Amino acid sequence: MAKIVLDFNAYKHNLEYLATFTGDISAIMIVLKDNAYGHGLVEIAPLAAACGIKRAVVKNSHEALKICDFFEQTLVLIEPNPENIVQNDKIAYTISDLNAITLFPKNSLVHLKIDTGMRRNGIYIKELNETFELIAKQELNLTGVYTHFYGADVLGSDFFVQEQTFKKAKEICKKLANKYGFDLVFHSKNSSALLRGTFDDDYARIGIASYGYTDLHESFGRFDLRPILSLWADKISTRKVLKGDRVGYTGSYKVAQDMIISTYDVGYGDGLFRYDGKGILKVKNNQHILGKMSMDSLSLQGDAKSICIFDDANHMANFFNTITYEILTKLSPHLTRVVLH
Ligand SMILES: *Cc1c(COP(=O)(O)O)cnc(C)c1O
User: What is the Cα–Cα distance from 79 to 200, expressed in whole angstroms?
Assistant: First the structure.
């Protein structure tokens, strides 16, 4: 059966390496949103906890409820439906909009997101006074303030401008926290921002780097990260095909000489990008995928019992002209996950 294999030692290595940037592993908030970037939320959460991670970040309440017992606090990034807010002292919610404050039930644990340039979510710095007043009036338990960088993985000054803007915001928040009696932690950096810069917050929110990847250009340095996921498929059948035969839908692959081919149990229905038979897409053992990928299968030369489709998402991301994040998050939650210790 097709499966995802997760390498615990590589994961631990990545977290320990990232801790050299934060000073301590417990200063990493591990980002487990979107099924832990396709790796498997319930598989990765206990591994993170075993490495000493105390805080997690997820997309919504649904994800938070699955894993909150592993951590001291789990932060929800997006929960637009107030009826889904869970009153739980281990789950914190993000306030992304001034107008959303009154939707939170009294005593909700919340972090405030500040817009320092991305212009998607978060309140403006000029709204901070009003925001703190409203949060206090609503009797919410504000415990954190954060921002998100929109240009941390590209060359240019935008990143530094945002960093300065957040510094300013922090000072204002500290004064307001004193006034209203809130005890705050601050966090701003995602993987690229942490690898690229200095660290002077309480936490960094680390996603992609923990899984072994960075989108930072080589000019930023070389980073000792190891991909932790590999995708494997099992052989369904083997046959001999003859010169002139055509393989797969629309017969787009024409057999140039007699050979043995096998068909394996993974396809675009498992979350792989659909290879349409154009260009040469190789799996890990260097074999080309023969013809169009089917929903649940693909064909390769040879008769190996099991094959590794990829163990480095960069390979797929480069071929399909996208980012590793997208290759990984698309992997089906229905694939079996196995942890290698
Ligand atoms: C996804 C996300 C992160 C993690 O980003 P990486 O680049 O994967 O480290 C951090 N913060 C927020 C708000 C996010 O949405």
Answer: 28
Report how far residue 238's alpha carbon sits from residue 283's, in angstroms, rounded to the nearest whole number.
18
**Closest atom of ligand 1 to CA, residue 194:** 9
Give the H/E segment covering residue 86: none
Do the Cβ atoms of 48 and 205 come closer than 8 Å?
no
pLDDT in tens, 143-162: 999 999 998 888 888 999 99
Tell me the sheet residues that pair with 95.
Answer: 112
Which position among 3, 249, 282, 330 bears the catalytic label? 249
Name all contacts of 290-293 with Cβ < 8 Å and 24+ positions apart.
290/247, 290/248, 290/253, 290/261, 291/246, 291/247, 291/248, 291/249, 291/251, 291/252, 291/253, 292/248, 292/249, 292/250, 292/252, 292/253, 293/248, 293/267, 293/268
pLDDT at 197: 80
pTM above 0.70, yes or no: yes
High-pLDDT (> 90) share of the chain, %: 94
For the chain, give the mean pLDDT. 97
pLDDT tens digits, 8-30: 999 999 999 999 999 999 999 99
- CB-based contacts of 155, cutoff 8 Å, min separation 6: 217, 219
Rounded to whole angstroms, the Cα distance separating 5 from 336 reads: 8
* Distance from Cα 148 to the centre of ligand 1, integer Å: 8
Q: Pairing relation of β-strands 229-241 and 259-264?
A: antiparallel
Counting from 1 in the atom list of ligand 1, the atom nearest the Cα of 191 is 9
Q: Is the Cβ atom of 298 under 6 angstroms away from ligand 1?
A: no
Q: Is 11 a catalytic residue?
A: no
* Predicted local distance difference test score (pLDDT) of residue 157: 87
Contact 231, 308 (CB under 8 A): yes
Whole-angstrom Cα distance, residue 123 to residue 100? Answer: 11
How far is Cα 169 from Cα 153, in angstroms, rounded to an integer?
Answer: 22
